[in-house]
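Run log, item B.
One chain of 321 residues. Sequence copied directly from the ordering sheet:
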Amino acid sequence: MRHRLALLGSTAALAAGAVVPAQFAGAQPAAAAAEYQWVALGDSYTAGAIRAAGDVFEVPRDGCERTDRSYPQVIDRDLGGLLDLTNVSCGAATIENVTDQVQNPIGRHMPPISEDPDYPFPPVPPQSEAVGPGTDVITVGVGGNTLGFADLLFKCTQLGAESDGAGTPCKDALGVGIQARLDKVSEEYDRMLVVLHERAPQAKILTVGYPTVIPEDTSKCGFGDLTKFGTITQGDLAWLRQDVLQPLNKAIEKSAGTQDAAGFVDLYTSSQDHSACDTDKWVEGLVTLPDQLSFVHPNALGHRNAADHVEEAILNVIAGA
């Protein structure tokens, strides 16, 4: 699949006149415009955000931390002659930041853990403003920040340390509120898709789920190992997988169906043997050695896998248009 798409991207680039001998470049007509307008929306799992997902390529930085090996940028290189990408994904974005709320990007400013020398950043507009009547394809990967997954991770590490790795202290303290969080995701996701349909009536909308970050066998996640999940107990990791992350993907998939999206891109199944606790990991743990804060985000391998599946979905909706 990957090689086929790379070949398609190369062919499209050639057709657009991208490969021209240097001595004749000035005499050539301008490259043909891409046939389809694609807008990528989402949070840090779309933007890339961490150093293991590449380098931030925007100068000056806007604090959203879009990286050059994130899946929208990978697809843009694969299919750049076919698609004109507008990538407005942003680290820490909530569903409402996609729909209609201004966001204040944080970059890598998370004191006391890390200080960002460029912080504070100017606000960025709601991501939905990037789409319009001329948009052909929208991909959106969001929901984890509305659920509060990062806050859950932080709290679970604290409670796990206090319990010295025993039991399910995080589930015991926070489990009763998870369904309300999931209900909020569903409600806001539905509204977001309605807004996107209104702004871009002809666009095909693809919703993108989250990959596997916690393995079925939580004994792989050594207690106290910061390259995995630090001091979160094995019991709480199993709870986070079964009662939080899997239902989050189900909520997104359900919204995609009820709001007439073009499709749901499942990243969970293909990444099941590549969690933050597996040897061949596509998701980093809390930190990436030697000293990079990654806080459970996909690395470049995870984004390559996402690119393969999102590419296929995009090509399918284009072929069916």
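Observations after the first pass:
- The mean pLDDT is 90.
- The first helix runs from residue 2 to 15.
Flagged for discussion on Thursday.
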